[in-house]
TrEMBL record:
The active site is at residues 93, 128, 145. The lineage of its organism: Eukaryota, Metazoa, Chordata, Craniata, Vertebrata. Residues 261-275 have a biased composition (Basic and acidic residues). One of its GO terms (cellular component) is cytoplasm. Pfam families: Vasohibin. This is Vasohibin 1. It comes from Chelydra serpentina. Residues 224-289 are annotated as: Disordered. GO terms for biological process: regulation of angiogenesis.
Length: 289
């Protein structure tokens, strides 16, 4: 990091030496992870988490302190989020999303899903991401940005389209034109899950769709998430499924019982002399299993 400072600062290594050699510099306060009680209402807990994310500050250094690979399993990303809380270094928008997932894992009634934006300004394209949340049928978001209006949104929006249009208006005030929106599916609350986050289940081109079709696609995605939640509590953890397949004694015993029942059905339907020899062999096979 000091080499990076010396490289980009006009004073070069002199500024780094001056800072590192100073003995009277005040200590930088380290933000504390909010201690959230289960009895505290979800909206208040979200506000506390957003305050913590904001206290870490946005990373303006030009380099990223934490390498985040979107293809990593959820358990690996949660380990990285834990490291973020220990280091308490400035973060960018993607790191804020991972941290938001980590800090809301103990809120099973809160659904979380990534929302990515692609905008155009002054001949350049810009990308941003926040963590969408849904609590009690109301939508909001957690995140960090250079712009206050592109970060936190309290869970007060009645529909997903209202939330996205609010971000679009905020971008418009910054002279940015919204080009694309990518929506992911709900993230598992299991911190040990080996599944990957689904970052872009729906990719919506704002200009090609038009206003009304854009709104319809947003609501379609919201319905898809509700249906997925209705079938369970979000996507199942592959870790749990794999353990059941390997270690469940009931599954291991079911196969011989099914073979036995099929043999009995064949005996009751066919009266052949050779059938009497089949049962000892089958039972012997069951004992070997």
């Amino acid at each position: 990091m000091w080499r990076h400072v010396a490289k980009i600062h006009p004073e070069g290594e002199m500024v780094a030496q001056r800072i590192r050699g100073a003995t009277d510099l005040p200590k930088i306060p380290i933000p504390s992870v909010p201690a959230l009680q289960p009895s505290t209402p979800i909206p208040e807990r979200l506000e506390a988490i957003q305050r913590y994310i904001k206290e870490l500050q946005y990373n303006h250094t030009g380099t990223q302190f934490f390498e985040i690979k979107k293809s990593r399993p959820l358990t690996g990303l949660m380990d990285l989020a834990k490291e973020m809380t220990k280091e308490a270094l400035p973060i960018k928008c993607l790191e804020a999303v991972i941290l938001g997932i980590y800090l809301t894992n103990n809120m099973p009634t809160l659904e979380r899903f990534p929302i990515s934006f692609k905008t155009h300004f002054s001949g350049n394209y810009f990308r941003h991401i926040v963590l969408g949340v849904n609590f009690g049928g109301r939508y909001g978001a957690l995140g960090i940005s250079r712009r206050e209006e592109l970060m936190y949104k309290a869970p007060t929006f009645r529909t997903l389209s209202e939330l996205i249009f609010n971000y679009e208006e905020a971008y418009h005030r910054c002279w940015h034109v919204l080009k694309k929106v990518k929506l992911g599916h709900c993230v598992s609350h299991d911190p040990h899950s080996v599944e990957q986050i689904e970052w872009k289940h729906s990719i919506l081109d704002v200009e090609k769709l038009g206003r009304e079709d854009f709104r319809k696609e947003l609501e379609r995605h919201a319905r898809d998430m509700r249906l997925k939640i209705g079938k369970g509590t979000g996507p199942p953890s592959p870790t749990k499924d794999r353990k059941k397949d390997v270690s469940s004694p009931q599954r291991g015993q079911s196969s011989p019982h099914r073979r036995n029942s099929r043999g009995e059905r064949r005996l009751s339907g066919e009266k052949k002399p050779g059938e009497s020899k089949a049962m000892p062999d089958l039972n012997g096979y069951q004992i070997r299993v």
